[in-house]
Specification:
Blueprint lengths: L6 E5 L20 E2 L2 E2 H11 L4 E6 L4 H7 L3 H9 L3 H9 L7 E5 L6 H6 L2 H4 L4 E4 L3 E4 L4 H12 L2 E7 L9 E8 L3 E9 L10 E9 L2 H6 L12 H6 L8 E5 L3 E4 L3 H13 L2 H21 L1
Parallel strand pairs: 1-4, 1-6, 4-5, 8-12
Antiparallel strand pairs: 2-3, 6-11, 7-13, 8-11, 9-10, 10-12
The structure holds 1-O-phosphono-alpha-D-glucopyranose.
The site of 1-O-phosphono-alpha-D-glucopyranose has 13 residues, from β11 and α9.
Length: about 300
């Protein structure tokens, strides 16, 4: 079995109902932070980590995603005619090598584990990454790259992890820690969406994974778990007693939950402030708002 991680799965089949009415016609992964769709952040992070094959698990109504990654000859001609080289460079950054992207349909919304399993034939017998584009992570060194480096030391299965307030733990997969080595923790248990007060820790799984192909074999069994869904967390937990084990990786960076409106807005502000050409204007506006708010108190 090869050890280098070159394939990544992007589960993008969700309906995005929390963002209705926008998601009536726009896949949530196309919604933009500043001027780039969520999915572009995920792809850039994967590329930085050395991923060369990108597998999208989609569903009905997601064709805008396929169009997004296609070449755009008409647009190119227009930009060329107008001498807009900078925009041409932006456009070309979104292009992917021919054959580097594959789209697989998840025909039924049976859970994250099922979505990942749908890509099993394209993964074969190799370690692979999973990126949930809703979890956007701002970091100096992209999160998946940090994880690939950790995985080169640990092998096995590596999941991104982050401390969350105890009352939020039931929204996540939560790790039971056997040994805490700082950035890396050895895991002895994993629970998906624990009931209030029953989480084994407040170390939550965030949407970045490096997994061994035996996780896919477990998913073959199609067993459902929390919420009646086939959970990726449960399949990874089966690896704990296996040969290679499971590790949590506390990444360096700030994670935004772009699956929620508030998280999406926070990410918009943070990524806006990180852009030199927008920073001053945006900061001025935020200062005014805070000032008015304080004055009203
Ligand atoms: C999924 C996973 C969960 C993980 C979370 C991170 O849950 O099932 O283990 O903690 O992503 O964002 P979801 O947010 O899809 O309910």
């Amino acid at each position: 079995m090869q050890n280098k991680v070159t394939k990544a799965i992007f589960p993008v089949a969700g309906l995005g109902t929390r963002f209705l009415p926008a998601t009536k016609s726009v896949p949530k992964e196309i919604m933009t932070l500043v001027d780039r769709p969520l999915i572009q952040y995920a792809i850039d992070e994967a590329r930085a980590a050395g991923i060369t094959e990108f597998i999208f698990v989609t569903s009905r109504g997601k064709s805008a995603l396929e169009d997004y990654f296609d070449h755009a000859p008409n647009l190119e001609q227009e930009l060329l005619k107008k001498g807009k080289d900078d925009l041409m460079a932006v456009l070309k950054d979104t292009y992917m090598d021919s054959g580097a992207i594959a789209y697989i349909r998840q025909h039924k919304a049976l859970g994250l584990g099922h979505a990942v399993w749908c890509a099993r034939r394209l993964i074969g017998d190799e370690p692979f990454a999973v990126i949930l584009p809703d979890d956007v992570i701002a970091a100096e060194k992209p999160c998946l790259q940090q994880m690939v480096e950790a995985y080169e030391e640990t092998g096995g299965n590596v999941v991104a992890a982050m401390e969350v307030p105890p009352e939020k733990a039931s929204s996540y997969g939560v790790l039971d820690v056997e040994e805490d080595m700082g950035h890396i923790v050895k895991v002895k248990g994993m629970v998906e969406k624990p009931a209030a007060g029953e989480a084994p820790s407040n170390l939550a799984v965030i949407g970045r994974y490096i997994l061994t192909p035996s996780v896919l074999r477990t998913l073959n069994e199609g067993k459902s778990g929390a919420g009646g869904e086939i959970q990726l967390t449960d399949a990874i937990a089966k690896e704990i007693d296996g040969e290679s084990g499971v590790f949590g990786y506390r990444f360096r960076g700030q994670r935004f939950d772009c699956g929620s409106k508030s998280g999406f807005l926070q990410a918009t502000v943070a990524f806006g402030l990180a852009r030199e050409e927008l920073r001053e204007d945006l900061l001025g506006y935020i200062r005014d708002v805070v000032h008015l708010d304080r004055a009203a108190e």
